[in-house]
Amino acid sequence: MSLPQSAGVAAYRNLLRAVRVAFHGDHRVMTAAHEQARSQFEAGRSLEAGSKEWEEKVKHANDVAVVLRQGVIQGEKVQEDEKYQLRIHKDIRLGDNESIKQSRMPGKKANSFKALKKGGCGSA
User: Fold this and answer.
1) C or N: which end of the chain has fewer Cβ atoms within 10 Å?
2) 10-68: pLDDT as tens digits
3) Cβ proximity of 42 and 92 under 8 Å
4) Do residues 111 and 117 touch, judged by C-beta distance below 8 A?
5) How far is Cα 28 from Cα 69, in angstroms, rounded to an integer?
6) CA-to-CA distance for 121 and 123, rounded, in angstroms?
7) What is the secondary structure of the chain as a DSSP string?
């Protein structure tokens, strides 16, 4: 197996691992994601390894794997409440909310949730 081909196989495996991490415990969604990944890689099988289009597809697969690992959180509704139990794993990228706390315009307060409920951004 040449180096470009092994990069394609590595991207495929990386994507399948990310699917397993992101959708752990949700067999239906995990199966659908595996099938989608397989169909996309099968569709690209005719591409020449190392070509520009092939490299874009490999990069896309690796990018999707990163998003699945770091940006997908599953939630399950708790039966007795209107709450959800989130499954946050070690790879999830957690922010510090600093960008939300900062006002977009100097001298103005950031829009609050109460303002949004009353009729939109900036309304009192």
Assistant:
1) C
2) 999 999 999 999 999 899 999 999 999 999 999 988 999 889 999 999 999 999 999 99
3) no
4) no
5) 18
6) 6
7) --HHHHHHHHHHHHHHHHHHHHTTT-HHHHHHHHHHHHHHHHHTTTSPTTSHHHHHHHHHHHHHHHHHHHH--EEEE-TTSS-EEEE--TT------HHHHS-SSTTSPPPPHHHHHHTSTT--
